[in-house]
Design a protein that fits this description.
Structural class: mainly alpha
Number of domains: 4
Shape: flat
Length: 575
Protein backbone atom coordinates (compact mmCIF):
# COMPACT_ATOMS: atom_id res chain seq x y z
CA UNK A 1 0.00 0.00 0.00
CA UNK A 2 1.35 3.43 -0.94
CA UNK A 3 1.63 5.98 1.82
CA UNK A 4 -0.51 9.08 1.39
CA UNK A 5 1.38 12.37 0.99
CA UNK A 6 -0.23 15.53 2.32
CA UNK A 7 0.79 17.84 -0.52
CA UNK A 8 -1.21 19.33 -3.37
CA UNK A 9 -0.97 17.51 -6.70
CA UNK A 10 1.74 18.62 -9.11
CA UNK A 11 0.61 19.61 -12.58
CA UNK A 12 2.95 18.28 -15.24
CA UNK A 13 3.90 21.18 -17.49
CA UNK A 14 4.03 19.03 -20.67
CA UNK A 15 1.69 16.04 -20.68
CA UNK A 16 2.47 13.01 -22.79
CA UNK A 17 0.57 13.07 -26.06
CA UNK A 18 -1.93 10.23 -26.40
CA UNK A 19 -1.36 8.26 -29.58
CA UNK A 20 -3.54 5.51 -31.04
CA UNK A 21 -2.47 2.06 -29.88
CA UNK A 22 -0.09 0.45 -32.35
CA UNK A 23 -0.37 -3.21 -33.39
CA UNK A 24 1.65 -5.77 -31.51
CA UNK A 25 5.24 -6.41 -32.52
CA UNK A 26 6.22 -9.83 -33.93
CA UNK A 27 7.97 -10.66 -30.66
CA UNK A 28 4.85 -9.81 -28.67
CA UNK A 29 2.73 -12.01 -30.90
CA UNK A 30 5.24 -14.82 -30.60
CA UNK A 31 5.10 -14.56 -26.81
CA UNK A 32 1.32 -15.00 -26.90
CA UNK A 33 1.67 -17.96 -29.27
CA UNK A 34 4.14 -19.60 -26.88
CA UNK A 35 1.87 -19.24 -23.86
CA UNK A 36 -1.11 -20.75 -25.65
CA UNK A 37 0.91 -23.53 -27.29
CA UNK A 38 2.35 -24.52 -23.92
CA UNK A 39 -1.12 -24.51 -22.40
CA UNK A 40 -2.69 -26.74 -25.06
CA UNK A 41 0.22 -28.96 -26.08
CA UNK A 42 0.21 -27.92 -29.74
CA UNK A 43 3.16 -26.94 -31.93
CA UNK A 44 3.52 -23.17 -31.67
CA UNK A 45 4.37 -22.39 -35.35
CA UNK A 46 0.85 -23.41 -36.40
CA UNK A 47 -0.49 -20.32 -34.61
CA UNK A 48 1.99 -18.02 -36.37
CA UNK A 49 1.06 -19.68 -39.67
CA UNK A 50 -2.67 -19.13 -39.09
CA UNK A 51 -2.02 -15.44 -38.37
CA UNK A 52 -0.10 -15.09 -41.64
CA UNK A 53 -2.46 -17.15 -43.75
CA UNK A 54 -5.79 -15.83 -42.46
CA UNK A 55 -5.34 -12.09 -41.96
CA UNK A 56 -8.86 -11.71 -40.58
CA UNK A 57 -11.04 -10.82 -38.83
CA UNK A 58 -10.05 -7.18 -38.40
CA UNK A 59 -9.54 -6.42 -34.70
CA UNK A 60 -8.91 -3.40 -32.54
CA UNK A 61 -5.54 -1.62 -32.54
CA UNK A 62 -4.94 -2.33 -36.24
CA UNK A 63 -4.60 -6.06 -35.59
CA UNK A 64 -5.89 -8.99 -37.59
CA UNK A 65 -6.88 -12.39 -36.33
CA UNK A 66 -6.22 -16.04 -37.00
CA UNK A 67 -9.45 -16.80 -38.83
CA UNK A 68 -11.32 -17.72 -35.64
CA UNK A 69 -15.09 -17.10 -35.47
CA UNK A 70 -17.73 -17.77 -32.77
CA UNK A 71 -19.13 -21.28 -32.33
CA UNK A 72 -21.07 -23.12 -29.65
CA UNK A 73 -20.36 -21.26 -26.38
CA UNK A 74 -17.55 -19.13 -27.83
CA UNK A 75 -19.02 -15.66 -28.35
CA UNK A 76 -17.99 -12.86 -30.66
CA UNK A 77 -16.63 -10.94 -27.67
CA UNK A 78 -14.40 -13.92 -26.81
CA UNK A 79 -12.61 -13.72 -30.16
CA UNK A 80 -12.63 -9.96 -30.73
CA UNK A 81 -9.07 -9.42 -29.44
CA UNK A 82 -5.77 -10.81 -30.64
CA UNK A 83 -5.27 -12.69 -27.38
CA UNK A 84 -8.74 -14.18 -27.73
CA UNK A 85 -8.07 -15.20 -31.33
CA UNK A 86 -4.88 -17.01 -30.33
CA UNK A 87 -6.46 -18.62 -27.27
CA UNK A 88 -9.35 -20.12 -29.21
CA UNK A 89 -7.15 -20.96 -32.19
CA UNK A 90 -5.05 -23.10 -29.85
CA UNK A 91 -8.20 -24.71 -28.43
CA UNK A 92 -9.44 -25.36 -31.95
CA UNK A 93 -6.21 -27.01 -33.12
CA UNK A 94 -6.46 -29.28 -30.09
CA UNK A 95 -10.10 -29.99 -30.97
CA UNK A 96 -9.16 -30.90 -34.55
CA UNK A 97 -6.56 -33.31 -33.19
CA UNK A 98 -9.09 -34.91 -30.84
CA UNK A 99 -11.64 -35.25 -33.62
CA UNK A 100 -9.16 -36.87 -36.01
CA UNK A 101 -7.96 -39.23 -33.30
CA UNK A 102 -11.54 -40.33 -32.76
CA UNK A 103 -11.71 -41.02 -36.51
CA UNK A 104 -8.74 -43.36 -36.25
CA UNK A 105 -5.72 -41.18 -36.97
CA UNK A 106 -2.50 -42.48 -35.39
CA UNK A 107 0.44 -40.50 -34.08
CA UNK A 108 2.37 -40.80 -37.33
CA UNK A 109 -0.60 -39.35 -39.23
CA UNK A 110 -0.27 -36.10 -37.27
CA UNK A 111 3.47 -35.76 -37.02
CA UNK A 112 6.51 -35.97 -39.28
CA UNK A 113 8.91 -37.20 -36.59
CA UNK A 114 12.20 -36.85 -38.47
CA UNK A 115 11.57 -33.17 -39.20
CA UNK A 116 9.93 -32.42 -35.85
CA UNK A 117 6.75 -30.89 -37.28
CA UNK A 118 3.14 -31.51 -38.17
CA UNK A 119 2.56 -33.73 -41.20
CA UNK A 120 1.52 -32.27 -44.54
CA UNK A 121 -1.73 -34.21 -44.19
CA UNK A 122 -2.56 -32.53 -40.90
CA UNK A 123 -1.64 -29.06 -42.18
CA UNK A 124 -3.91 -29.55 -45.19
CA UNK A 125 -6.72 -30.53 -42.83
CA UNK A 126 -6.22 -27.37 -40.77
CA UNK A 127 -6.21 -25.24 -43.93
CA UNK A 128 -9.57 -26.74 -44.91
CA UNK A 129 -11.27 -25.07 -41.97
CA UNK A 130 -13.16 -26.60 -39.06
CA UNK A 131 -16.48 -26.43 -37.28
CA UNK A 132 -16.30 -27.99 -33.82
CA UNK A 133 -18.92 -30.49 -32.66
CA UNK A 134 -21.68 -29.11 -30.46
CA UNK A 135 -20.32 -30.74 -27.33
CA UNK A 136 -16.92 -29.05 -27.68
CA UNK A 137 -17.58 -25.80 -25.87
CA UNK A 138 -13.93 -24.64 -25.75
CA UNK A 139 -13.28 -24.65 -29.50
CA UNK A 140 -14.33 -22.11 -32.12
CA UNK A 141 -14.89 -22.16 -35.85
CA UNK A 142 -11.80 -21.94 -38.03
CA UNK A 143 -12.14 -20.40 -41.49
CA UNK A 144 -10.50 -21.91 -44.57
CA UNK A 145 -7.08 -20.64 -45.57
CA UNK A 146 -4.64 -20.97 -48.45
CA UNK A 147 -2.92 -24.31 -47.96
CA UNK A 148 0.40 -23.30 -49.48
CA UNK A 149 0.59 -20.03 -47.55
CA UNK A 150 -0.21 -21.84 -44.31
CA UNK A 151 2.48 -24.47 -44.88
CA UNK A 152 5.10 -21.95 -45.97
CA UNK A 153 4.69 -19.80 -42.87
CA UNK A 154 4.47 -22.84 -40.60
CA UNK A 155 7.81 -24.15 -41.87
CA UNK A 156 9.43 -20.71 -41.71
CA UNK A 157 8.40 -20.08 -38.12
CA UNK A 158 9.60 -23.51 -37.00
CA UNK A 159 12.95 -22.95 -38.71
CA UNK A 160 13.35 -19.60 -36.96
CA UNK A 161 12.76 -21.24 -33.58
CA UNK A 162 15.45 -23.84 -34.19
CA UNK A 163 17.91 -21.29 -35.57
CA UNK A 164 17.48 -19.14 -32.45
CA UNK A 165 18.86 -22.01 -30.36
CA UNK A 166 21.39 -23.22 -32.95
CA UNK A 167 19.48 -26.52 -32.84
CA UNK A 168 19.29 -29.07 -35.63
CA UNK A 169 15.88 -29.59 -37.25
CA UNK A 170 16.79 -33.25 -37.91
CA UNK A 171 15.03 -35.02 -35.07
CA UNK A 172 15.01 -38.73 -35.81
CA UNK A 173 16.57 -39.28 -32.38
CA UNK A 174 13.94 -37.37 -30.41
CA UNK A 175 11.26 -40.03 -29.86
CA UNK A 176 13.61 -42.54 -28.25
CA UNK A 177 15.48 -39.84 -26.35
CA UNK A 178 12.27 -38.61 -24.72
CA UNK A 179 11.23 -42.12 -23.70
CA UNK A 180 14.69 -42.93 -22.34
CA UNK A 181 14.68 -39.80 -20.22
CA UNK A 182 11.21 -40.38 -18.78
CA UNK A 183 12.03 -44.03 -18.06
CA UNK A 184 14.85 -43.00 -15.72
CA UNK A 185 13.13 -40.03 -14.05
CA UNK A 186 11.71 -41.91 -11.05
CA UNK A 187 15.18 -43.11 -10.06
CA UNK A 188 16.57 -39.59 -9.99
CA UNK A 189 13.60 -37.72 -8.55
CA UNK A 190 14.59 -36.03 -5.27
CA UNK A 191 11.52 -33.88 -4.69
CA UNK A 192 12.90 -30.52 -5.79
CA UNK A 193 10.21 -27.98 -6.63
CA UNK A 194 11.16 -27.67 -10.30
CA UNK A 195 11.18 -31.47 -10.68
CA UNK A 196 7.67 -31.72 -9.25
CA UNK A 197 6.46 -28.94 -11.53
CA UNK A 198 7.98 -30.75 -14.52
CA UNK A 199 6.01 -33.91 -13.67
CA UNK A 200 2.84 -31.88 -13.14
CA UNK A 201 3.23 -30.23 -16.55
CA UNK A 202 3.65 -33.62 -18.17
CA UNK A 203 0.51 -34.84 -16.40
CA UNK A 204 -1.46 -31.76 -17.47
CA UNK A 205 -0.49 -31.91 -21.14
CA UNK A 206 -0.79 -35.68 -21.37
CA UNK A 207 -4.37 -35.47 -20.10
CA UNK A 208 -5.16 -32.37 -22.20
CA UNK A 209 -5.88 -30.15 -19.21
CA UNK A 210 -5.51 -26.39 -19.13
CA UNK A 211 -4.38 -25.67 -15.58
CA UNK A 212 -2.07 -26.92 -12.88
CA UNK A 213 -5.03 -27.19 -10.53
CA UNK A 214 -6.83 -29.47 -12.97
CA UNK A 215 -3.74 -31.68 -13.20
CA UNK A 216 -3.53 -31.96 -9.41
CA UNK A 217 -7.23 -32.84 -9.20
CA UNK A 218 -6.78 -35.50 -11.90
CA UNK A 219 -4.10 -37.23 -9.83
CA UNK A 220 -6.71 -37.82 -7.09
CA UNK A 221 -3.91 -37.87 -4.54
CA UNK A 222 -5.03 -38.66 -0.96
CA UNK A 223 -4.12 -36.01 1.59
CA UNK A 224 -1.88 -37.09 4.48
CA UNK A 225 -3.82 -37.97 7.62
CA UNK A 226 -4.27 -35.06 9.99
CA UNK A 227 -3.09 -32.51 7.42
CA UNK A 228 -4.47 -29.00 7.84
CA UNK A 229 -5.02 -26.90 4.71
CA UNK A 230 -2.72 -24.12 5.88
CA UNK A 231 0.16 -26.56 6.47
CA UNK A 232 -0.24 -28.56 3.27
CA UNK A 233 2.63 -28.58 0.77
CA UNK A 234 2.91 -30.35 -2.56
CA UNK A 235 5.03 -33.29 -1.40
CA UNK A 236 1.89 -35.45 -1.12
CA UNK A 237 1.76 -35.39 -4.93
CA UNK A 238 5.10 -37.14 -5.34
CA UNK A 239 3.87 -40.76 -5.16
CA UNK A 240 0.97 -40.41 -7.64
CA UNK A 241 3.17 -38.34 -9.98
CA UNK A 242 5.87 -40.97 -10.03
CA UNK A 243 3.29 -43.71 -10.51
CA UNK A 244 1.89 -41.79 -13.47
CA UNK A 245 5.33 -41.28 -15.02
CA UNK A 246 6.12 -44.99 -14.75
CA UNK A 247 3.18 -45.71 -17.09
CA UNK A 248 4.17 -43.16 -19.74
CA UNK A 249 6.47 -45.26 -21.91
CA UNK A 250 3.93 -48.09 -22.22
CA UNK A 251 1.10 -45.74 -23.22
CA UNK A 252 3.04 -43.46 -25.58
CA UNK A 253 1.42 -43.35 -29.00
CA UNK A 254 3.37 -40.56 -30.69
CA UNK A 255 0.49 -38.09 -30.60
CA UNK A 256 1.54 -34.43 -30.69
CA UNK A 257 0.22 -33.57 -27.22
CA UNK A 258 2.11 -36.52 -25.73
CA UNK A 259 5.33 -35.49 -27.41
CA UNK A 260 4.87 -31.87 -26.39
CA UNK A 261 4.25 -33.02 -22.82
CA UNK A 262 7.54 -34.93 -22.78
CA UNK A 263 9.43 -32.02 -24.34
CA UNK A 264 7.94 -29.66 -21.75
CA UNK A 265 8.91 -32.12 -19.02
CA UNK A 266 12.49 -32.09 -20.30
CA UNK A 267 12.58 -28.30 -20.45
CA UNK A 268 11.41 -27.86 -16.87
CA UNK A 269 13.40 -30.80 -15.47
CA UNK A 270 16.61 -29.39 -16.94
CA UNK A 271 15.61 -25.76 -16.27
CA UNK A 272 16.09 -24.73 -19.91
CA UNK A 273 14.71 -21.56 -21.47
CA UNK A 274 12.87 -22.96 -24.47
CA UNK A 275 11.34 -25.97 -26.13
CA UNK A 276 14.09 -25.99 -28.76
CA UNK A 277 16.81 -25.88 -26.08
CA UNK A 278 15.21 -28.94 -24.48
CA UNK A 279 15.22 -30.78 -27.81
CA UNK A 280 18.85 -29.85 -28.46
CA UNK A 281 19.86 -31.04 -24.98
CA UNK A 282 18.35 -34.46 -25.65
CA UNK A 283 20.59 -34.77 -28.69
CA UNK A 284 23.57 -34.60 -26.31
CA UNK A 285 22.29 -36.60 -23.34
CA UNK A 286 19.23 -38.53 -22.23
CA UNK A 287 20.33 -38.67 -18.59
CA UNK A 288 17.83 -37.76 -15.89
CA UNK A 289 20.57 -37.08 -13.35
CA UNK A 290 20.28 -33.62 -11.81
CA UNK A 291 23.51 -31.69 -12.31
CA UNK A 292 25.38 -30.74 -9.15
CA UNK A 293 25.26 -27.16 -10.47
CA UNK A 294 21.86 -26.99 -8.84
CA UNK A 295 23.63 -26.99 -5.46
CA UNK A 296 25.61 -23.82 -6.15
CA UNK A 297 23.15 -21.49 -4.42
CA UNK A 298 23.04 -23.77 -1.35
CA UNK A 299 26.82 -24.00 -1.19
CA UNK A 300 27.24 -20.23 -1.41
CA UNK A 301 24.62 -19.79 1.34
CA UNK A 302 26.53 -22.27 3.50
CA UNK A 303 29.80 -20.43 2.94
CA UNK A 304 28.19 -17.11 3.87
CA UNK A 305 26.92 -18.61 7.11
CA UNK A 306 30.35 -20.11 7.85
CA UNK A 307 32.01 -16.72 7.34
CA UNK A 308 29.80 -15.38 10.13
CA UNK A 309 29.81 -18.34 12.52
CA UNK A 310 33.44 -19.50 12.23
CA UNK A 311 34.74 -19.97 15.77
CA UNK A 312 38.27 -21.33 15.09
CA UNK A 313 37.43 -24.78 16.41
CA UNK A 314 39.65 -27.63 15.23
CA UNK A 315 37.03 -29.38 13.11
CA UNK A 316 35.95 -26.06 11.54
CA UNK A 317 39.54 -25.16 10.73
CA UNK A 318 40.14 -28.60 9.26
CA UNK A 319 37.05 -28.25 7.04
CA UNK A 320 38.23 -24.95 5.63
CA UNK A 321 41.83 -26.09 5.18
CA UNK A 322 40.56 -29.07 3.16
CA UNK A 323 38.35 -26.80 1.09
CA UNK A 324 41.20 -24.35 0.54
CA UNK A 325 43.46 -27.18 -0.67
CA UNK A 326 40.92 -28.42 -3.21
CA UNK A 327 40.00 -24.89 -4.31
CA UNK A 328 43.65 -24.03 -4.98
CA UNK A 329 44.27 -27.52 -6.40
CA UNK A 330 47.25 -28.10 -4.12
CA UNK A 331 48.86 -31.53 -3.81
CA UNK A 332 49.64 -31.72 -0.13
CA UNK A 333 48.84 -30.31 3.28
CA UNK A 334 52.32 -28.79 3.42
CA UNK A 335 51.66 -26.83 0.22
CA UNK A 336 48.34 -25.76 1.70
CA UNK A 337 49.93 -24.46 4.90
CA UNK A 338 52.50 -22.51 2.89
CA UNK A 339 49.71 -20.94 0.81
CA UNK A 340 47.98 -20.01 4.06
CA UNK A 341 51.12 -18.23 5.26
CA UNK A 342 52.43 -20.84 7.71
CA UNK A 343 55.78 -22.66 7.73
CA UNK A 344 54.89 -26.39 7.69
CA UNK A 345 58.20 -27.32 9.43
CA UNK A 346 56.68 -25.98 12.64
CA UNK A 347 54.75 -29.23 12.89
CA UNK A 348 57.72 -31.57 12.34
CA UNK A 349 60.57 -32.53 14.67
CA UNK A 350 60.62 -31.20 18.21
CA UNK A 351 57.46 -29.64 19.61
CA UNK A 352 57.41 -25.86 19.06
CA UNK A 353 56.54 -23.43 21.81
CA UNK A 354 52.85 -22.96 22.49
CA UNK A 355 53.05 -19.29 21.56
CA UNK A 356 54.39 -20.23 18.11
CA UNK A 357 51.58 -22.73 17.58
CA UNK A 358 49.03 -20.17 18.70
CA UNK A 359 50.38 -17.58 16.27
CA UNK A 360 50.45 -20.13 13.44
CA UNK A 361 46.84 -21.08 14.13
CA UNK A 362 45.87 -17.41 14.19
CA UNK A 363 47.58 -16.88 10.81
CA UNK A 364 45.73 -19.87 9.35
CA UNK A 365 42.44 -18.51 10.67
CA UNK A 366 43.04 -15.07 9.19
CA UNK A 367 43.84 -16.57 5.79
CA UNK A 368 40.85 -18.94 5.93
CA UNK A 369 38.43 -16.16 6.85
CA UNK A 370 39.74 -14.07 3.96
CA UNK A 371 39.38 -17.12 1.70
CA UNK A 372 35.76 -17.86 2.54
CA UNK A 373 34.77 -14.20 2.36
CA UNK A 374 36.03 -14.06 -1.20
CA UNK A 375 34.32 -17.27 -2.37
CA UNK A 376 30.88 -15.75 -3.22
CA UNK A 377 32.52 -13.29 -5.62
CA UNK A 378 35.19 -15.62 -7.02
CA UNK A 379 33.07 -18.75 -7.47
CA UNK A 380 32.67 -19.61 -11.16
CA UNK A 381 30.95 -22.98 -10.88
CA UNK A 382 34.05 -24.95 -11.90
CA UNK A 383 34.05 -28.61 -10.92
CA UNK A 384 37.06 -28.37 -8.59
CA UNK A 385 35.56 -25.30 -6.89
CA UNK A 386 32.24 -27.07 -6.34
CA UNK A 387 34.02 -30.16 -5.02
CA UNK A 388 35.95 -27.96 -2.60
CA UNK A 389 32.72 -26.49 -1.21
CA UNK A 390 31.08 -29.92 -0.94
CA UNK A 391 34.17 -31.11 0.97
CA UNK A 392 33.87 -28.15 3.33
CA UNK A 393 30.23 -29.07 3.95
CA UNK A 394 31.14 -32.71 4.55
CA UNK A 395 33.86 -32.04 7.12
CA UNK A 396 32.01 -29.12 8.73
CA UNK A 397 28.92 -31.30 9.24
CA UNK A 398 30.93 -34.42 10.13
CA UNK A 399 29.29 -36.50 7.41
CA UNK A 400 30.74 -39.87 6.31
CA UNK A 401 30.68 -39.53 2.50
CA UNK A 402 30.30 -36.98 -0.30
CA UNK A 403 27.08 -38.76 -1.33
CA UNK A 404 25.55 -38.23 2.10
CA UNK A 405 26.70 -34.61 1.99
CA UNK A 406 25.05 -34.05 -1.39
CA UNK A 407 21.83 -35.55 -0.02
CA UNK A 408 21.80 -33.13 2.91
CA UNK A 409 22.52 -30.23 0.56
CA UNK A 410 19.58 -31.29 -1.62
CA UNK A 411 17.42 -31.22 1.50
CA UNK A 412 18.73 -27.72 2.23
CA UNK A 413 17.78 -26.67 -1.29
CA UNK A 414 14.23 -27.94 -0.87
CA UNK A 415 13.86 -26.00 2.36
CA UNK A 416 15.42 -22.86 0.87
CA UNK A 417 13.07 -22.92 -2.11
CA UNK A 418 10.03 -22.68 0.14
CA UNK A 419 11.45 -20.75 3.11
CA UNK A 420 10.06 -17.41 4.25
CA UNK A 421 12.52 -14.66 3.55
CA UNK A 422 13.00 -13.95 7.27
CA UNK A 423 13.50 -17.58 8.31
CA UNK A 424 16.83 -19.22 9.16
CA UNK A 425 16.42 -21.58 6.19
CA UNK A 426 16.21 -18.75 3.65
CA UNK A 427 19.31 -17.77 1.71
CA UNK A 428 21.30 -15.15 3.62
CA UNK A 429 21.54 -11.70 2.10
CA UNK A 430 24.69 -11.40 -0.03
CA UNK A 431 27.57 -9.66 1.72
CA UNK A 432 28.89 -6.50 0.11
CA UNK A 433 32.18 -6.69 -1.74
CA UNK A 434 35.35 -5.39 -0.18
CA UNK A 435 36.00 -2.77 -2.81
CA UNK A 436 39.52 -2.06 -4.06
CA UNK A 437 41.06 1.35 -3.70
CA UNK A 438 40.61 3.87 -6.46
CA UNK A 439 43.61 4.11 -8.79
CA UNK A 440 45.33 7.49 -9.09
CA UNK A 441 44.12 7.73 -12.71
CA UNK A 442 41.64 5.76 -14.79
CA UNK A 443 42.85 3.69 -17.74
CA UNK A 444 41.07 1.10 -19.94
CA UNK A 445 42.70 -1.60 -17.76
CA UNK A 446 41.79 -0.51 -14.23
CA UNK A 447 38.13 0.57 -14.48
CA UNK A 448 35.95 -0.35 -11.50
CA UNK A 449 32.35 -0.65 -12.67
CA UNK A 450 30.95 0.13 -9.22
CA UNK A 451 33.14 3.20 -8.68
CA UNK A 452 32.26 6.83 -9.22
CA UNK A 453 34.16 8.33 -12.13
CA UNK A 454 35.06 11.42 -10.11
CA UNK A 455 36.14 11.28 -6.46
CA UNK A 456 32.92 11.76 -4.46
CA UNK A 457 31.08 12.20 -7.77
CA UNK A 458 27.53 11.15 -8.59
CA UNK A 459 28.17 9.10 -11.74
CA UNK A 460 29.69 5.64 -12.01
CA UNK A 461 31.48 3.66 -14.65
CA UNK A 462 28.46 1.36 -14.71
CA UNK A 463 26.33 4.27 -15.96
CA UNK A 464 28.96 5.32 -18.49
CA UNK A 465 29.46 1.82 -19.94
CA UNK A 466 25.93 0.41 -19.83
CA UNK A 467 26.74 -1.82 -16.87
CA UNK A 468 30.11 -2.83 -18.33
CA UNK A 469 28.61 -3.83 -21.70
CA UNK A 470 30.46 -1.16 -23.69
CA UNK A 471 33.96 -0.81 -22.24
CA UNK A 472 36.20 1.97 -23.61
CA UNK A 473 38.83 0.57 -25.99
CA UNK A 474 41.53 3.17 -25.41
CA UNK A 475 42.71 6.01 -23.19
CA UNK A 476 41.13 8.70 -25.39
CA UNK A 477 37.67 7.26 -24.73
CA UNK A 478 38.37 6.99 -21.00
CA UNK A 479 39.48 10.63 -20.91
CA UNK A 480 36.38 11.72 -22.83
CA UNK A 481 34.12 9.94 -20.35
CA UNK A 482 35.94 11.52 -17.40
CA UNK A 483 35.66 14.95 -19.02
CA UNK A 484 31.90 14.77 -19.60
CA UNK A 485 31.48 13.35 -16.10
CA UNK A 486 33.01 16.52 -14.72
CA UNK A 487 30.63 18.63 -16.78
CA UNK A 488 27.45 16.65 -16.05
CA UNK A 489 28.33 16.82 -12.35
CA UNK A 490 28.10 20.58 -12.71
CA UNK A 491 24.72 20.16 -14.44
CA UNK A 492 23.48 18.06 -11.53
CA UNK A 493 24.76 20.56 -8.99
CA UNK A 494 23.12 23.47 -10.83
CA UNK A 495 19.80 21.64 -11.16
CA UNK A 496 19.93 20.59 -7.54
CA UNK A 497 18.39 17.18 -8.24
CA UNK A 498 19.52 13.73 -9.44
CA UNK A 499 20.33 13.18 -13.10
CA UNK A 500 19.31 9.75 -14.42
CA UNK A 501 21.50 8.46 -17.26
CA UNK A 502 19.83 6.56 -20.11
CA UNK A 503 22.73 6.50 -22.57
CA UNK A 504 26.42 7.38 -22.40
CA UNK A 505 29.27 5.64 -24.23
CA UNK A 506 28.25 3.30 -27.04
CA UNK A 507 30.28 1.16 -29.45
CA UNK A 508 30.24 2.19 -33.09
CA UNK A 509 28.71 -1.07 -34.36
CA UNK A 510 25.91 -0.80 -31.81
CA UNK A 511 25.39 2.82 -32.79
CA UNK A 512 24.96 1.81 -36.45
CA UNK A 513 22.67 -1.08 -35.58
CA UNK A 514 20.21 1.14 -33.74
CA UNK A 515 20.15 3.70 -36.56
CA UNK A 516 21.93 6.53 -34.75
CA UNK A 517 23.71 9.26 -36.73
CA UNK A 518 27.20 8.35 -37.86
CA UNK A 519 28.83 11.32 -36.09
CA UNK A 520 27.21 10.60 -32.74
CA UNK A 521 29.29 11.83 -29.79
CA UNK A 522 28.18 8.74 -27.87
CA UNK A 523 30.81 6.78 -29.82
CA UNK A 524 33.48 9.19 -28.56
CA UNK A 525 32.30 8.87 -24.97
CA UNK A 526 31.57 12.53 -24.21
CA UNK A 527 27.79 12.54 -24.82
CA UNK A 528 25.00 11.74 -22.37
CA UNK A 529 21.23 11.32 -22.66
CA UNK A 530 19.45 11.79 -19.34
CA UNK A 531 16.28 12.84 -17.56
CA UNK A 532 15.44 14.47 -14.24
CA UNK A 533 12.44 13.55 -12.12
CA UNK A 534 9.73 16.21 -12.37
CA UNK A 535 11.29 18.17 -15.23
CA UNK A 536 10.65 18.06 -18.96
CA UNK A 537 13.34 18.14 -21.60
CA UNK A 538 12.24 21.65 -22.54
CA UNK A 539 12.70 22.89 -18.98
CA UNK A 540 16.18 21.42 -18.81
CA UNK A 541 17.02 22.83 -22.25
CA UNK A 542 15.97 26.35 -21.36
CA UNK A 543 17.83 26.17 -18.05
CA UNK A 544 21.10 24.97 -19.57
CA UNK A 545 21.01 26.88 -22.86
CA UNK A 546 22.66 30.13 -21.68
CA UNK A 547 25.48 28.31 -19.91
CA UNK A 548 26.21 25.05 -21.73
CA UNK A 549 29.04 25.55 -24.25
CA UNK A 550 28.78 22.20 -26.09
CA UNK A 551 25.96 20.27 -27.71
CA UNK A 552 22.50 20.51 -26.18
CA UNK A 553 19.50 18.68 -27.57
CA UNK A 554 15.92 17.62 -26.88
CA UNK A 555 13.52 15.14 -28.43
CA UNK A 556 10.02 15.63 -29.81
CA UNK A 557 9.10 11.98 -29.34
CA UNK A 558 10.61 11.78 -25.85
CA UNK A 559 9.55 14.95 -24.02
CA UNK A 560 11.38 14.16 -20.78
CA UNK A 561 14.74 13.26 -22.34
CA UNK A 562 17.72 15.60 -22.75
CA UNK A 563 21.09 15.36 -24.48
CA UNK A 564 24.38 17.05 -23.71
CA UNK A 565 27.83 16.54 -25.20
CA UNK A 566 31.26 18.11 -24.83
CA UNK A 567 31.99 19.10 -28.41
CA UNK A 568 34.09 22.24 -28.66
CA UNK A 569 31.36 24.57 -29.90
CA UNK A 570 27.73 25.44 -29.16
CA UNK A 571 25.19 23.29 -30.99
CA UNK A 572 21.44 23.14 -30.38
CA UNK A 573 18.88 20.75 -31.88
CA UNK A 574 15.37 19.40 -31.59
CA UNK A 575 14.73 15.92 -33.01
Amino acid sequence: MHRAIATPPIVISKPLSIQPMAPLTPDQRNSIYLVEAERTGIHKPILAALYAAQGHPTLEEEETGLGIAPANRVSLADVSTFQGQVHYAANTIRSITNNLTAQGWQGADFWFAEAGRYSDQFLMTVASGYAPPANDVAAARLEKSDKQVLMTHYLEDGEIDFQSQNASPHLAYLEQALLTLVEHLPTHYVGLVHQREALLELTRLWRKLDTREAAIAALNAPLPLGTQPHTLDDTYLDIPLLQFVQRIAASYGGYPHQREGLIRLTQLWRELDSREAAIASLGKSTSAVTSLKILDSVLIALIQRISITYAAQANQRNALVEGFRLWRQLDSRSDTLIALGVNPTLFTGSAPAQSILTEAAAQVDRSLIEFIRQIPTEYQGLDHQRNALIRIAQVWRNLPTPEKTIQTLMDDLKRMSQARRDSEEAAPTPLALILPRRPPAWTPHNLQIHASILPSGSFTWAEATHGGTYLPPNQATVDAIVHIAQLVQQVRDRLGRPVHITRWYRLSDVNARVGEVSNSRHMVGDAIDFYCDGLTGDQIYWFLDPWWSGGLGRYTRFPYLSHIDARGYRARWLR
